[in-house]
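User: Round two. Same drill as before: sequence, then structure, for each protein.

Assistant: Same drill it is. First protein:
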Amino acid sequence: MRRYFGIFVLVVLMSCGFAHGETIFAPGGIGYWDPGINARITALGGAGIAHFDTLYVHSNNPATWRSTGATRFTIGVDIERTSAKSPTGTDNSDEYSFPGATIALPIYKSLGIGLVYQILTDHEYLVLSRSQLQASPNDTVDFYDVVERNDGDGGLSRFGVMTGFGIKKLAIGVGMDVYLGKLDDLWTRSYNDSNIDSSGQVLRREMSGIGFRVGAIYSLNSKINVAGLVELPVSVKADATRRIEGGASFTEEGGMEFTVPLAVTLGATYTKKRWRFLGDVSMRAWENSTRDWGEFDTSRKYTDTFGIAAGIERLPSRGALDPWLQKWMYRAGFHYTQHYLEINDNIVPEIGFSIGFGKPLKTGAGAVDFTFGYTSRGTSAKNNISENIYYFQMGWTTWEKWFVRRER
């Protein structure tokens, strides 16, 4: 048990230095909303709030933490390649990250508690633009090359404490989340071969907030589960520091506030023999979010987001003499969602496909999962910018059985 908790703390500390891959949609708000999840859930398109088993837990729905009976620990790594297209050209970037970690602890057979770390938003971006400024008559050149750089870093993460318990066919879970993060925005303008001073601005916002969530899973029968999850609004407050350079340089400090709005997710699973089908629909009410986030963000139009996720999973065979490939888990998934900021007065759609497989450990006490996926974000026709993301994710889940009478 101690080694799992130690690994969990280590992964959280390491993850604080990593974010998702760079995205051109990150500027504005608190970054691009892209919660990190484990490799199994990613392969299923992100669906799975209605599914509970003895190995996996869903980091978003605390009801999946009920009746654990085992200590379960999950970590993963995510490798992405992003190709962004804009009117100025195409840019490619490669990133890797730790999307999160979970550890579930059984308190009793029908009661479990857990810790979760999850990256929520991505604020990493880099936009360069070049132009020319006509020189004065006394200068030796006709034009100056002007380079503007917009650079962002950081994001928002959550540290959650979950608990779930079961009452016959009903599982109920509640969770408390501590939201922490930092956003850095850097803007600079330089004039090559010129006596004009460069200018720039740095805006740093250190964020914190506390939120709550409640989830439930109900088993209609041995094959069908239905579930609901409500994430209550969270007021994220930030200590802001702005430094302006160029001519007269100065630093100013102040406070800012942003509301992560109410979210509702509904899900269902259907299992027949060795096949499992999963589906979730979700909504987040961004239009009702209050924000005092600076002049740059005030003029942007926020829109409510809708998402759908669906997945299919082939379960492993339990036959001792079956071929080894029959003992693996195979998955495929699809998801559709939207960005909460409109670009060019149009929503930013995101569509993704994923496939994956899981290999149970020989000891039977866990699994290693692998996922490959593709995501298309935005459209050049409506948003003037678009991205193609290719990613590989690997995860490891292990467990130790508790509440078992040991032989002496």
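Second protein:
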Amino acid sequence: MRIVPKDLGLAWHVRFVQARDSVEKVGAAAPEPQLGLVGHLCSGEMGLDESSAAALVPAAKAAVSNWFIPLLPALPISIVGSVVLFIPLHQPIQLLPLYLGTVGLAAAATGIGWARARFRRLLEAPLSAEEVDRLLEKIPGSMDRLFLELVRDAVRQPGPAATEANVREALGNLAAAIERLPPLEATPLDTAALREEAQALELQAGTEPDRVTAESLERRARALRYSAQTHEHSALMFRRAATLRSEIESQIVAMREGLMALHSQTLDAAGFAELASSAREVATEAVRLAEAHVELAGALESRPFVIPTSAETPPPSLQTISAHGTSLPGDS
């Protein structure tokens, strides 16, 4: 199937362009986005928005930065031409700057056109199984490797145009889902013990005759309760992200099996369209989970650090994420 890097989203687009630009950069970290004058000229009219162009131009540094090579032969050509025009032919010497400028502009335009052609090839050439294998050797993450194996299977698999469209859509959705997954950063913590310790400190503060010591105990209790709530929210995000990660892995396995079924003609384009639809739902879920993760983190950061010491404070309402949207417990 004809799969191009752009079908896999910007992050993979950058990786493949970087690998195509130089074998030494296969699997390397993406460069910082940057778009100068030459980058604008090389990426113009290629269907890229400014942020995408700024990410892709540095990835194709070798191709873009060699735009000046046609200027090298322009120097001897301009010297020889100047000698011929202004000595034997006796042209007015006042035309010399105009002549040199014209030669320079022509050489620069040739260089930019040459760099644009190379940049376009890096962007738009279909993926091959060999270049996917080269990137596979350098990619450490298990999820990324599983996704690249699916891409390799799709590249090797012939299919009708309708099926190709479904495969490209599914690959793009799965790539987006993987990119938006929150990191699995939660660590086990006994939040019940933290709350018990906070309650004990509150009781101690209530019987402490010294006001300064009592206030210090209350602040410690508030900090422990806040820490417990924070870790409970993090643990919830961890469970949701782990569940969604497992679902994405299952979708990738299902698509690989679907590609094999297409090859043996036991699955038609309509059947594969259902797999593509499932991948779309997973991508939507990943976006919602990422947004909920950001919202919960912001809520924790902005939450007033004042917790009553006389009673247990109920934790903030947690969002419930489903394929139909985001709601709060108790909503109908």
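The two ends are 45 Å apart (CA to CA).

User: Perfect.
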